[in-house]
Design goal:
By secondary structure, this protein is mainly beta. The protein has one domain. Helices cover about 10% and strands about 35% of the residues. The strands form two sheets. Strands 2, 3, 4, 5, 6 and 7 form a six-stranded antiparallel sheet that branches. A two-stranded antiparallel sheet has the order 1-8. The longest helix is centred in the last third of the chain and has 11 residues, at about 110-120. The relative contact order is 0.17.
């Protein structure tokens, strides 16, 4: 499997106002906050690049799979995701992605990375009712629940504070 191609020639789009159809397959190389794009299957990117006057419009749909760490139990779960890109980039002005339209080819990797990271949630759960890890021993609580004996509060040096009448 090869890397997802993100470099395109916009010669026809810029000079003849011809649309550029994009259909690409490949591996994404994106890592973010405990989440990694899956290398087991290809990501697909389809869309269109068009010119409309002073700007280039990039419209893409990217389907991909991620391996994400559960925020509670740290188990890796696989998810299918979809990211939409609808960017208007002005040809004669600077843009946020440092894309230079004077060059022969442009690389839209920064746009793709930003939109994919936006589509990934910061808190990922392996299942809705994930119990997480045991606070005492660190064992995963989804398969079996730990039954630790709670410590007596009198053992704490601060236990006398609970008797204060505030």
């Amino acid at each position: 499997m090869s890397q997802l191609n993100t470099i395109f020639s916009l010669d026809k789009v810029l000079n003849t106002n011809t649309d550029l159809n994009i259909e690409e397959k490949g591996i994404l190389d994106i890592k973010y906050s405990g989440t990694v794009a899956s290398t087991e299957s290809d990501a697909t990117m389809t869309g269109l690049v068009t010119r409309d006057g002073d700007y280039v419009l990039i419209e893409l749909i990217i389907n991909f799979k991620i391996n994400s760490e559960c925020s509670r139990c740290l188990k890796i779960s696989k998810q299918e995701k979809e990211a939409y890109i609808d960017e208007k980039l002005y040809i004669k002005k600077d843009n946020d992605y440092d894309i230079n339209f004077k060059e022969e080819n442009i690389d839209i990797q920064p746009i793709i990375s930003e939109k994919i990271i936006d589509s990934i949630s910061l808190i990922t759960l392996c299942m809705k009712d994930c119990n997480g890890l045991c606070v005492v021993c660190g064992k995963e609580q989804n398969s079996s629940v730990c039954k630790h004996i709670e410590k007596n509060l009198k053992e704490s040096p601060f236990s006398s504070l609970s008797e204060l009448d505030l």
